[in-house]
Protein backbone atom coordinates (compact mmCIF):
# COMPACT_ATOMS: atom_id res chain seq x y z
CA UNK A 1 0.00 0.00 0.00
CA UNK A 2 1.22 3.58 -0.65
CA UNK A 3 1.24 4.41 3.08
CA UNK A 4 3.47 1.43 3.88
CA UNK A 5 5.74 2.32 0.99
CA UNK A 6 6.15 5.89 2.23
CA UNK A 7 6.90 4.70 5.76
CA UNK A 8 9.44 2.23 4.42
CA UNK A 9 11.15 4.91 2.37
CA UNK A 10 11.33 7.23 5.36
CA UNK A 11 12.83 4.51 7.55
CA UNK A 12 15.39 3.75 4.87
CA UNK A 13 16.19 7.44 4.49
CA UNK A 14 16.76 7.80 8.23
CA UNK A 15 18.92 4.66 8.19
CA UNK A 16 21.18 6.28 5.59
CA UNK A 17 21.34 9.58 7.48
CA UNK A 18 22.17 7.79 10.73
CA UNK A 19 25.00 5.95 9.00
CA UNK A 20 26.35 9.11 7.37
CA UNK A 21 26.20 10.99 10.67
CA UNK A 22 28.18 8.27 12.48
CA UNK A 23 30.81 8.41 9.75
CA UNK A 24 31.00 12.21 9.88
CA UNK A 25 31.39 12.16 13.67
CA UNK A 26 34.27 9.67 13.39
CA UNK A 27 36.16 11.10 10.42
CA UNK A 28 34.70 14.45 9.43
CA UNK A 29 32.97 15.51 6.25
CA UNK A 30 36.02 15.66 4.03
CA UNK A 31 37.64 12.35 4.96
CA UNK A 32 34.45 10.34 4.83
CA UNK A 33 33.87 8.72 1.46
CA UNK A 34 30.53 7.70 0.06
CA UNK A 35 31.82 4.11 -0.02
CA UNK A 36 32.25 4.26 3.77
CA UNK A 37 28.70 5.49 4.12
CA UNK A 38 27.46 2.63 1.93
CA UNK A 39 29.22 0.12 4.19
CA UNK A 40 28.06 1.79 7.39
CA UNK A 41 24.44 1.78 6.23
CA UNK A 42 24.58 -1.83 5.04
CA UNK A 43 23.05 -0.74 1.74
CA UNK A 44 24.24 -0.81 -1.83
CA UNK A 45 25.44 2.27 -3.65
CA UNK A 46 22.34 2.17 -5.81
CA UNK A 47 20.06 2.09 -2.78
CA UNK A 48 21.76 5.12 -1.21
CA UNK A 49 21.80 7.04 -4.49
CA UNK A 50 18.06 6.51 -4.68
CA UNK A 51 17.80 8.96 -1.78
CA UNK A 52 20.93 11.11 -1.88
CA UNK A 53 23.11 11.96 -4.86
CA UNK A 54 26.12 13.37 -3.02
CA UNK A 55 27.74 14.07 0.34
CA UNK A 56 26.41 17.62 0.10
CA UNK A 57 22.88 16.21 -0.08
CA UNK A 58 23.57 14.15 3.03
CA UNK A 59 25.05 17.09 4.92
CA UNK A 60 22.07 19.31 4.09
CA UNK A 61 19.65 16.59 5.15
CA UNK A 62 21.44 16.03 8.47
CA UNK A 63 21.40 19.77 9.11
CA UNK A 64 17.68 19.92 8.33
CA UNK A 65 17.07 16.96 10.62
CA UNK A 66 18.95 18.56 13.52
CA UNK A 67 16.98 21.82 13.32
CA UNK A 68 13.82 20.38 14.95
CA UNK A 69 16.01 19.02 17.76
CA UNK A 70 17.24 22.54 18.48
CA UNK A 71 13.78 24.02 18.04
CA UNK A 72 12.38 21.54 20.56
CA UNK A 73 14.77 22.84 23.23
CA UNK A 74 13.87 26.42 22.46
CA UNK A 75 10.12 25.97 22.25
CA UNK A 76 10.03 24.00 25.50
CA UNK A 77 11.54 27.01 27.25
CA UNK A 78 9.35 29.53 25.45
CA UNK A 79 6.16 27.63 26.25
CA UNK A 80 6.68 27.74 30.03
CA UNK A 81 4.34 30.69 30.54
CA UNK A 82 6.34 33.34 32.33
CA UNK A 83 9.91 33.23 31.08
CA UNK A 84 12.61 32.46 33.63
CA UNK A 85 15.53 34.88 34.04
CA UNK A 86 17.82 35.18 31.03
CA UNK A 87 20.69 33.32 32.69
CA UNK A 88 18.32 30.41 33.35
CA UNK A 89 17.08 30.42 29.75
CA UNK A 90 20.63 30.26 28.40
CA UNK A 91 21.58 27.52 30.88
CA UNK A 92 18.56 25.38 29.99
CA UNK A 93 19.34 25.67 26.31
CA UNK A 94 22.99 24.76 26.93
CA UNK A 95 21.91 21.71 28.94
CA UNK A 96 19.72 20.58 26.05
CA UNK A 97 22.62 21.02 23.64
CA UNK A 98 24.91 18.92 25.84
CA UNK A 99 22.30 16.16 26.07
CA UNK A 100 22.05 15.96 22.29
CA UNK A 101 25.83 15.99 21.89
CA UNK A 102 26.01 12.96 24.15
CA UNK A 103 23.50 11.07 22.02
CA UNK A 104 25.55 11.67 18.86
CA UNK A 105 23.07 14.19 17.48
CA UNK A 106 23.67 16.51 14.57
CA UNK A 107 24.80 19.25 16.96
CA UNK A 108 27.97 17.21 17.49
CA UNK A 109 29.10 17.91 13.93
CA UNK A 110 27.54 21.36 13.62
CA UNK A 111 30.87 23.29 13.55
CA UNK A 112 31.98 21.19 10.57
CA UNK A 113 28.87 22.32 8.75
CA UNK A 114 29.45 25.95 9.72
CA UNK A 115 32.97 25.83 8.29
CA UNK A 116 31.81 24.11 5.11
CA UNK A 117 29.07 26.69 4.64
CA UNK A 118 31.63 29.49 4.33
CA UNK A 119 32.68 28.25 0.89
CA UNK A 120 30.08 25.70 -0.24
CA UNK A 121 26.99 27.50 -1.59
CA UNK A 122 24.76 24.44 -1.36
CA UNK A 123 25.54 23.89 2.32
CA UNK A 124 25.55 27.63 3.03
CA UNK A 125 21.86 27.91 2.23
CA UNK A 126 20.92 25.20 4.74
CA UNK A 127 23.17 26.52 7.50
CA UNK A 128 22.12 30.14 6.98
CA UNK A 129 18.49 29.12 7.35
CA UNK A 130 19.19 27.35 10.64
CA UNK A 131 21.19 30.30 12.00
CA UNK A 132 18.49 32.74 10.91
CA UNK A 133 15.76 30.70 12.59
CA UNK A 134 17.80 30.34 15.78
CA UNK A 135 18.53 34.05 15.91
CA UNK A 136 14.84 34.79 15.34
CA UNK A 137 13.99 32.60 18.31
CA UNK A 138 16.42 34.44 20.59
CA UNK A 139 14.95 37.70 19.31
CA UNK A 140 11.52 36.43 20.38
CA UNK A 141 12.95 35.76 23.83
CA UNK A 142 14.24 39.34 23.97
CA UNK A 143 10.83 40.66 22.88
CA UNK A 144 9.11 38.62 25.59
CA UNK A 145 11.51 39.93 28.22
CA UNK A 146 10.90 43.46 26.95
CA UNK A 147 7.13 42.98 27.17
CA UNK A 148 7.58 41.76 30.76
CA UNK A 149 9.55 44.86 31.67
CA UNK A 150 12.78 42.92 32.14
CA UNK A 151 14.49 44.39 29.10
CA UNK A 152 15.00 48.12 28.69
CA UNK A 153 12.20 49.72 26.60
CA UNK A 154 14.73 51.24 24.19
CA UNK A 155 16.68 48.00 23.74
CA UNK A 156 16.88 46.43 20.28
CA UNK A 157 15.60 42.82 20.56
CA UNK A 158 17.27 41.91 17.27
CA UNK A 159 20.66 43.05 18.57
CA UNK A 160 20.14 41.11 21.80
CA UNK A 161 19.13 38.04 19.76
CA UNK A 162 22.30 38.32 17.69
CA UNK A 163 24.47 38.49 20.83
CA UNK A 164 22.75 35.50 22.44
CA UNK A 165 23.12 33.48 19.24
CA UNK A 166 26.84 34.22 19.31
CA UNK A 167 27.08 33.15 22.95
CA UNK A 168 25.44 29.80 22.22
CA UNK A 169 27.55 29.21 19.11
CA UNK A 170 30.69 29.93 21.10
CA UNK A 171 29.51 27.60 23.85
CA UNK A 172 29.13 24.72 21.39
CA UNK A 173 32.65 25.25 20.02
CA UNK A 174 34.16 25.51 23.51
CA UNK A 175 32.32 22.38 24.62
CA UNK A 176 33.65 20.39 21.67
CA UNK A 177 37.23 21.73 21.73
CA UNK A 178 37.90 22.29 25.43
CA UNK A 179 35.23 20.28 27.19
CA UNK A 180 35.46 22.37 30.36
CA UNK A 181 32.28 24.43 30.02
CA UNK A 182 28.77 23.33 30.89
CA UNK A 183 25.33 24.79 31.45
CA UNK A 184 26.30 25.99 34.91
CA UNK A 185 29.31 27.83 33.45
CA UNK A 186 27.00 29.82 31.18
CA UNK A 187 24.48 30.39 33.94
CA UNK A 188 27.11 31.80 36.29
CA UNK A 189 28.77 33.90 33.60
CA UNK A 190 25.49 35.40 32.41
CA UNK A 191 24.36 36.04 35.98
CA UNK A 192 27.61 37.84 36.74
CA UNK A 193 27.38 40.01 33.63
CA UNK A 194 23.75 40.89 34.20
CA UNK A 195 24.08 41.68 37.90
CA UNK A 196 27.36 43.61 37.80
CA UNK A 197 27.34 47.22 38.98
CA UNK A 198 28.15 48.87 35.66
CA UNK A 199 27.42 52.43 36.60
CA UNK A 200 23.66 52.31 36.98
CA UNK A 201 21.87 52.07 40.31
CA UNK A 202 18.48 51.42 38.70
CA UNK A 203 17.39 47.89 37.90
CA UNK A 204 15.85 48.64 34.52
CA UNK A 205 16.24 45.08 33.23
CA UNK A 206 18.94 43.26 31.33
CA UNK A 207 18.95 45.39 28.17
CA UNK A 208 21.28 48.25 29.04
CA UNK A 209 23.38 46.10 31.37
CA UNK A 210 23.96 43.45 28.72
CA UNK A 211 24.83 46.14 26.21
CA UNK A 212 27.36 47.75 28.54
CA UNK A 213 28.75 44.43 29.73
CA UNK A 214 29.51 43.12 26.26
CA UNK A 215 30.52 46.37 24.55
CA UNK A 216 34.21 47.07 23.95
CA UNK A 217 35.46 50.64 24.38
CA UNK A 218 36.46 52.20 21.08
CA UNK A 219 40.01 52.71 22.32
CA UNK A 220 40.41 48.98 22.96
CA UNK A 221 39.59 48.24 19.33
CA UNK A 222 42.00 50.89 18.10
CA UNK A 223 44.74 49.49 20.32
CA UNK A 224 44.48 46.11 18.55
TrEMBL record:
Residues in HTH tetR-type domain copies? 10-70
Superkingdom in the source lineage: Bacteria
Q: Which UniProt keywords apply?
A: DNA-binding, Repressor, Transcription, Transcription regulation
Which one of the record's GO molecular function terms can you name? Answer: DNA binding
Tell me one Pfam family matched here: TetR_C_6
DNA-binding region in chain numbering: 33-52
PROSITE patterns the UniProt entry points to:
HTH_TETR_1, HTH_TETR_2
Which InterPro entries does this UniProt record tie to the protein?
Answer: BetI_C, DNA-bd_HTH_TetR-type_CS, Homeodomain-like_sf, HTH_TetR, Tet_transcr_reg_TetR-rel_C_sf
Q: Which PANTHER family match?
A: HTH-TYPE TRANSCRIPTIONAL REPRESSOR NEMR, TRANSCRIPTIONAL REGULATORY PROTEIN
Protein name in the entry = TetR/AcrR family transcriptional regulator
Amino acid sequence: MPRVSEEHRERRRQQILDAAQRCFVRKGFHKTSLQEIFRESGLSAGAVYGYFRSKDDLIRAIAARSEPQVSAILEEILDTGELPPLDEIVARFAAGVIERMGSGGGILIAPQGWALATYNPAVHEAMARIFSNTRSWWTRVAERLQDDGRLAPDADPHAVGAVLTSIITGFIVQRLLLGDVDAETLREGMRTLLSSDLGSSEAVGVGNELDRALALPVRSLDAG
